[in-house]
Amino acid sequence: MKRTAALLLIAGLIFLSSSPLDAQTGRPDMTFGSVPAESFTTQDSAAAVVLFDHGQVRFDDTYHSGRLGVVYEKHARILILRHDALRLASLTLSNSRKGDAMIDEFKGATYNLENGSVSVTRLDKTNIFTEKNAEYEIEKVAFPNAKEGSIIEYSYRILYPGINFIPSWHFQGNYPERWSEYDISVPRLYDFAVRSQGHQKFVVDSTIVYDGNQVIRRIWAIQDVPPLEKAEPYTTTLKNHLSLIEFQLASVQQNGYRKTYSTTWPQLTHELLKNDYFGAALDDHNRWMDDEVKRITAGAAGPADALHRLYAYVRDRFTCIQNERIYLSQPIKKTWDDRKGNSIADINLLLTALCRHQGLDAAPVILSSRANGYAHDGYPLISEYNYVVTRVMLDGKQYLLDASKPYLGFGQLPELCYNGWGRAIDSTHDRITLLPDSIKESRHTVVVLVNSDSGYTGTYTRRAGVFESMNLRNQLKKSGPASFLENLRRQMADFKQMDGAGFDSLDVPEAAVTWHYDMKYRFTQKRFYLNPIMHERFNSSPFVATERHYPVEMPFCIDNSYVLSMEVPKGYAVEQLPKSQRILIDDSSGFFEYLISQDGPVIHFQVHLQLNRAVFQPEEYSGLRSFFTTIANKEKEPIIFKKLDQ
Question: Under DSSP, is residue 330 helix (H, G, I), strand (E, B) or coil?
Fold first, then answer.
């Protein structure tokens, strides 16, 4: 089921596949207009079914005045089964006009089964509306006579000037697809890096050489492709699991010489460091920094102290509009003067420049955030990267810094950065490990409940983990501590009161946030139920679906502990105590421990949840789901107290 992303060079790989097209009995007849009556019969319960989706690419000099260009053709046939899929009968094609690409040769038809015969309603000029402006060419198509049970079919061509762009192909969409195929032919003079991704198995993966060994044809096809599922809990982005193929020009051979295009990290690093919107400003002398850098670092105890001061200065005095991109939106001097950046790159490249100005070994690190999807580290596709942080090497130790968010402490990165790997853009080209499995979030809670002269009282203290502390600082900056505590009060039972609540270390980003409160109970019932886990129990499992076809991707490993010591309330006795339980994940990568006992008038209780992995594959989902279901059920169990006879 699992198929990891793969890379290859089209012109560099020549073989004849064992799955040629003529051996595929499931391949449909894709002749335009060839729609037999049996095409309307299906067992699918989906709102629509893509009967086939076919793409083809070739290089041709016919359309651009003798200049070689890329010709992309798409042909699809779709069966509409329910009313909510009728939107598919209204199609909008939008193409950027920059570079003179253009949409050409659109044709389409609607087919209906009437009294056992297939009727055809073809598109004409009244069904196609063309709009053009300086940026885009747009064609809007309304398929006539489309209704539930109709089949629509269309094809079109897009002409791209030049040879450096091959459109990507998605084998998967919102509806099931019986057949999805991409067929490209590339002259041997051009090498394209190909990245394939997804969990579906190719039924065709063929390479054919023709035209005197000068053209290489690659064909990929997947049969019976399921629809892309909706995002479930602990999914970074569905883009990571979409079955697709995408391309980037790797090299061109001209006059016996082969020119490469950013196919290695050294090449890409060189280009980025010379780029005016990335690295060029880092090598500038930036004399305008002199006085302020001297002032910031005056009296520093050494390079490490100077680095802390520079980081805190940028984090605390500069505002960042949280646009995720790796390129500058403006010169770093303007960011400095305005005390504001329009992107994360503006802030963190400024920090890099300041560190270099101080003589520190600083470099940008590019990465792809979790919402942006995985970047393939082995082959640099710069379009996959959307985030930049600062790396400083000092006394053999690496510091990764992000000054774009005021709630981040020194050496901390937000959880969105932990999505695989980053890459240092300097002479080392170091691969920076940013795997969720490499970080652990630890949370610790202590609760004490006692009988006292003022009644039944206690204290609650929770020390948040690093990422929870980040989120709390961010949340409390927006809504304020009072709002947080009031929301907490509203969730409490009528017989519980909260007093003396507060936060510690809110203004120290490097420290864990601790929040605490005093409590007082007033019990009058003959019998009452008290859940010993306050505020942090699983009320339900986060995994509801019975099966899952893509990995569970948690942002970090977990180590949560909860300890409670309570005296039995005066005038009451324990009627029922939950039983202790300990469960393990099959491969011992995690455990849940629920321990409870009574020692005379005192109840001792402890819960410990530990996950030593953050990512679980689909075949491990059933065990993980069972693990969290057991936790949720166990954490619902209360201690039952009954009033003693007076």
Answer: coil
Locus of tokens 């006009």: 97
Q: What are phi and psi of 219, to 5 degrees?
A: -130, 125
Find where tokens 């989706």 sit: 53
* CA-based end-to-end distance of the chain: 66
Q: Decide if 348 contacts 401 (C-beta within 8 A).
A: yes
DSSP reduced 3-state for 91? strand
Tokens of 455: 């009644």
- Mean pLDDT by runs of 10 across the 646 residues of the chain is 50 45 74 94 91 96 81 96 94 69 86 94 84 72 93 93 91 95 94 86 93 91 90 87 88 83 83 92 85 93 96 96 92 94 96 95 97 84 92 96 96 96 95 95 98 94 97 93 93 91 94 96 92 92 89 95 97 96 92 97 98 94 95 96 86
Nearest to 459 by CA among 474, 447, 441, 477: 447
Report d(CA 607, CA 462) in Å as an integer: 14
Q: What is residue 627's three-state secondary structure?
A: helix
Kindly report the backbone phi and psi dihedral angles of residue 488, in degrees, each rounded to the nearest multiple of 5, phi listed first.
Answer: -65, -45
Q: Is the distance from CB of 582 to CB of 591 less than 8 angstroms? A: yes
Q: Which residues of 630-641 are buried (b: 16+ CB within 10 A; e: fewer)?
A: bbbebbebebeb
Residues 28, 179: contact at Cβ < 8 Å?
A: yes
3-state SS class at 1: coil
3-state secondary structure of 532: coil
